[in-house]
Amino acid sequence: MAKGLTAGELRVEDQEALVQKLKEAKEELFNLRFQSATGQLESHGRLRAVRREIARIYTVMRERELGIVTVEKESSDG
């Protein structure tokens, strides 16, 4: 999972890529929580960052669902 994803970077991704990134982020969050519970977590700030990435992905998906932001496909003519 790439670190520091911005909403702008997520908006250019297609739906399948967003779902994949969401799955990866949720898996990472699970692993970080497990490490935290067992006292092995080294970077507590990463927990916050992953939660925010998940929120950004959900926000972009919801924007598309409501039609607020649409995916602009690059045209190959020109």
TrEMBL record:
Keyword Oxidoreductase (UniProt): no
Tree of life domain: Bacteria
GO biological process terms, alphabetically, are: translation
Molecular function as annotated in GO? structural constituent of ribosome
- CDD domains to which the protein is assigned, alphabetical: Ribosomal_L29_HIP
For this UniProt record, give its keywords in alphabetical order, as a comma-separated list. Answer: Ribonucleoprotein, Ribosomal protein
**Do the record's keywords include Ribonucleoprotein?**
yes
Q: Which InterPro entries match?
A: Ribosomal_protein_uL29 (IPR050063), Ribosomal_uL29 (IPR001854), Ribosomal_uL29_CS (IPR018254), Ribosomal_uL29_sf (IPR036049)
- GO CC annotation terms, alphabetical: cytosolic large ribosomal subunit
HAMAP family per UniProt: Ribosomal_uL29
- Protein family: Belongs to the universal ribosomal protein uL29 family.
What is the protein name for this chain? Large ribosomal subunit protein uL29
